[in-house]
Design brief:
By secondary structure, this protein is mainly alpha-helical. It has 3 helices and no strands. The chain is elongated, with a radius of gyration of 53 Å. The mean pLDDT is 87.
Length: 133
């Protein structure tokens, strides 16, 4: 077919097909750009979360090892000897006593009267000594 023999309907269909292809290309490019930016954002988040994940995995491994130790007979034996003060049959339990100094009480200060005795005549002192007045 030559261009002169094309009908207007075929021309319209041709423009419509080209327009739909252009719209489809724009939609695909937009979706690709959105997926690309989302991928970059997710990679940044993964890069920031990986050290935290590794830290938590190390903590988990430490806690698992501690759990296994606490559930073992070695822990029970160590706890019984150190914390509960127990001994195995045939062993002698030695409990060290720390020497604690008992504080000596300080004696209260003696109160001395500041009043000097009044000197009385000799005969008054004898009278009081004999009759208790």
């Amino acid at each position: 077919m030559s261009k002169k023999t094309e009908t207007p309907t075929i021309r319209r269909i041709s423009w419509l097909v080209w327009g739909m292809m252009a719209v489809l290309m724009i939609i695909l490019i937009s979706a690709f750009a959105h997926a690309l930016t989302l991928n970059i954002t997710l990679r940044e988040k993964v890069a920031t979360l990986e050290p935290l994940l590794e830290q938590q995995q190390n903590l988990n491994a430490t806690l698992q090892a501690q759990l296994e130790y606490v559930q073992s007979d070695a822990y029970i034996e160590a706890w019984a000897q150190e914390q509960a003060g127990m001994a195995r049959p045939g062993e002698t339990l030695v409990v060290p006593l720390a020497a604690t100094m008992t504080p000596t009480p300080t004696p209260p200060p003696e109160i001395t009267p500041n009043v000097s005795p009044q000197t009385q005549p000799f005969w008054v002192q004898w009278w009081q000594a004999l009759f208790g007045e």
